[in-house]
Specification:
globular, 47% helix, binds NADP nicotinamide-adenine-dinucleotide phosphate, alpha/beta, seven-stranded parallel sheet, 8 helices, Rossmann fold
């Protein structure tokens, strides 16, 4: 790509996605904004066009609806100007597993995992052919912590982390940078959807701080960026512990502790 690539941001109408849109517009990237709330995206686009002189398109889409998701997939696979995908749209729901309805958890999985996966799949072959580009997937520290009690949400975010790490290994050699960003509690409307009052929560990161930190990781080409984690060595130690087990997965006999005693 000789020109600055366009950036498609999902969930761009508010919160983390809107902050990403603002930062990339400031950097001179044209944008494609995707979410359901047209009025909010139009207001954001008007402001960013005026402030930064960039071109901004808007796609109104509910990413849990197959036909609307397909429109975004087509744009990603066909529009050669788009070189960066920010897979940010996501939500959370309140309650425990037995309180959450089957339809609600299925919708959560559809947005947080299926849509994110389909959009990455739509753009990756074109970026691989071009030999450059980036896919940013917004996960969560909850995906590392079943103890936090948001089981289905955390499971979707564990998927996002694994997918990102795997795609980084697969697509990195083809020139595509894949980043997983793992925020912790950040001041956005997502907490309204969970039924929590953000003002009663402690240790809340401001959305601008979160996105600025994530972009430091982006510029460094980090595969995994965890803005709230002070000691990067802890993440490295976790990865080293995980990788140390890999050779043992090749054993043909069950481990000693699983063998029947005669
Ligand atoms: N805030 C946190 O504490 C936190 C922590 C860790 C990870 N995250 C992750 O960060 C990402 C952004 O969340 P946020 O905190 O910025 O939440 P948010 O303020 O609720 O914004 C979510 C965005 O996703 C869009 N969206 C929701 N449902 C959609 C659908 N069905 N189709 C299309 N777009 C949809 C929303 O726009 P419309 O309503 O206009 O469609 C909105 O733009 C999510 O993946 C979330 O899991 C957030």
């Amino acid at each position: 790509m000789t020109t600055i690539p366009s950036v498609l941001v999902t969930g761009a109408s508010t919160g983390i996605g809107a902050a990403y849109a603002e930062r990339f517009a400031r950097r001179g990237h044209d944008l494609v904004l995707v979410a359901r709330d047209m009025a909010r995206m139009e207001a954001l686009a008007a402001r960013l066009r005026q402030q930064n002189g960039v071109a901004i398109d808007i796609i109104q889409a509910d990413l849990t609806k197959t036909d609307e998701l397909a429109t975004v997939e087509a744009r990603l696979s066909d529009d050669v100007r788009i070189g960066i995908l920010v897979n940010n749209a996501g939500t959370a729901i309140g309650g425990s597993f037995i309180e959450q309805s089957t339809d609600d958890v299925a919708r959560l999985v559809a947005l947080n995992t299926t849509a994110l996966l389909r959009l990455a799949s739509a753009i990756a072959p074109r970026l691989a052919k071009a030999g450059e580009g980036a896919i940013v997937n917004i996960g969560s520290v909850v995906g590392l912590a079943p103890e936090f009690g948001m089981t289905v949400y955390g499971a979707t975010k564990a998927f996002v982390l694994f997918l990102s790490q795997g795609l980084s290994l697969e697509l990195g050699p083809k020139g595509i940078y894949v980043q997983a960003v793992l925020p912790a509690t950040t001041r956005t409307e997502i907490w309204d959807h969970v039924g929590a009052d953000i003002n009663t929560l402690s240790n809340v990161m401001e959305v601008d701080d979160l996105v600025d930190a994530a972009l430091v990781g982006f510029d460094r080409r980090e595969p995994v960026t965890i803005p709230p984690l002070p000691d990067a060595g802890q993440w490295d130690a976790l990865q080293a512990a995980r990788q140390a087990m890999l050779p043992s997965y090749r054993n043909e006999l069950p481990a000693e502790r699983y063998r029947k005693v005669a």
